[in-house]
Amino acid sequence: MSANEGSGLAFCPRLHGGKRQDLTPLLEAESLHKRFGRQIVLDDVSLAFDEGQLTGIIGPNGAGKTTLFNVLTGRYAPERGRIRFAGRDITGSSPAAIARLGIARSFQAMNLFEPRARSTTSLSPCRRCARGCTTPGRRCDATAR
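Request: output the structure for the sequence above.
Response:
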């Protein structure tokens, strides 16, 4: 991921009381650089997120998205650059220290349940009557009335 692929935001302008103000972003990364051996994965990446902002980071496989999240959450330390949360420098902090601030990543869980036969996985409490009338092929007692 190169600098051209980052958001390029440095500050979040706001209107407040008719005056324009520049607020420090809640989470800001500046000029991040990360490499693995000779492979440069993050090259001068800067981005910023304001409180309450919802943002997606998209790109092809191998673009550096996971590495970026790992650097932001402390799993990897950047070779260069700074990460700030609420104005406080958290660059190089442990994942546990960063998580205590409320910054964490989740992992995509492809297998939420153990593999089972379809008849087993379709058995769940009935939504209409909240009873266990979920035998496959049998109508709910509540709908028969």
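The mean pLDDT is 75.
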